[in-house]
Amino acid sequence: MDTITHIVLGACIGEAVAGKQIGKKALIIGALAQNIPDIDILASFWLPVSADVLAHRGFTHSILFTLLVTPILAWCSLKLFRQNEISFRKWSLFWGLQILIHIFIDAFNAYGTGWFEPFSHYRVSFNTMFVADPLFTLWPALAMAALIILKVTSKKRMFWVKAGLGLSGLYLVAGIGFKLFIDNAVEKNLHKRSIEAADYFTTPTPLNNLLWYVVVKNDSGYNTGYRSVFDSKCNIDLHYVCRNDSLLKPDAGQKDVGQLLRFSRGYYTVNKWHDTLVFNDLYFGEMLGWKGPQSRYVFHYFLTQPTDNKLIVQRGRFAGWDRATLTAFFKRMRGI
User: Are 242 and 223 in contact (CB under 8 A)?
Assistant: First the structure.
């Protein structure tokens, strides 16, 4: 999830675990604690882009990392806050819970999270929530604001913690329900139209969990489309995209190609933008795909110009968006 979401969640969790002992300091320490796994962003200062996308949400988002750093952080906290009489066990709960919740909710995005690093490179990805979803973040944000305003002795503090975390939890569950609904609709469509598929995935479009991006994989490419939970139309309009993996053959031995293939988990296309060979990762969706086919992909890596690959994951996220695009997006969310 985005940094703001981790901050507001961390503040609420910090209040729940240690608010009675350290007061409003629990909000600040909790907000920092919740972002500990994202220290991997420092790797971007020295790693090439193709390696950096694998490093992010890798080892620092693993169960092993949680087990290693929790006692260290708990011991440091015990020494720094001796006057508050919080036990080592409670500090361990504080830090361990923060880090575990961070890596848990990150797994609901399409990026993938390395829970089992370094023993397995498998990336856990439930694909039920966009990386930044205002309706998920809103409730703990309101709760944090209330906790900042309220006195430390107020009996209303725990109400706001429960409300903020509880409503976000319900939204998370709703997203799982929507995904099950969308997946069922996809499977019915494929069966009805006799489309053979090796695999498929569905993932929410930006900032919501109502409109979903659908990618159906076969031997040579993909059928892609969109489905809203409010669509009354049974069929999903699918557009075929060729993988074009033959274009990779001259570059097959390059290290960045191997890293990109591993990161894409088998969902990629290769094409040319004029004289530039481009690798696209389908998990991150299309820029304006709901408006029509042939939209470019958000995640695009220039194989022939690797030095131009800054901000690779999100650089195309809102390219071409304007007021008319936003209006069309909301209209498509409401269903057809």
Answer: no
